[in-house]
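Cross-posted from the bioinformatics board.
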Amino acid sequence: EAGVTQFPSHSVIEKGQTVTLRCDPISGHDNLYWYRRVMGKEIKFLLHFVKESKQDESGMPNNRFLAERTGGTYSTLKVQPAELEDSGVYFCASSQVFYTEAFFGQGTRLTVV
Amino acid sequence: GNSVTQMEGPVTLSEEAFLTINCTYTATGYPSLFWYVQYPGEGLQLLLKATKADDKGSNKGFEATYRKETTSFHLEKGSVQVSDSAVYFCALRALGGATNKLIFGTGTLLAVQP
């Protein structure tokens, strides 16, 4: 069974540009989470989808970040326009039901220059 | 609010040395506690967990005991190997609420030298 897959693994963009990160959860997992780790600090929660609905988006830093999960399958996280402080590693995780273990992807390292 | 504090790294040890990585937490109620590990070039993996006070989680020779009286969940291993070199994250999941989100510490880089 394939794990959580994230694309791309690395992205380097200039300040002001747009970047879209993609996450493919484990098949059949209704719950999908985005997290990020900035500058070697703690991994912080961004948001949680249940199927295509946003269950909790309290961690989204500002309106430059837009997450979607059309059809309840893969999810995208768009940053527009990107700022220097958005650099970090963005992790996606999925779980089958609410309180079961979440499986993480390998992360996307975003560098904004 | 809920938070996790873990010891800063990097931690550098020789092979077969004893490892302790300290983790303390602040939470209302009785959270579940976790240790995740990120090996170089890989994603986060669940290493072990404990869901109630005095539970001991264990995996791959690592252990951690949920201590409610000291609000701690320290990670230990009796004899580390070079292959244990990784970043270790302590995390909690609070009960209740509308989401299943994890709250992580800052991570501790472990480097094991042969």
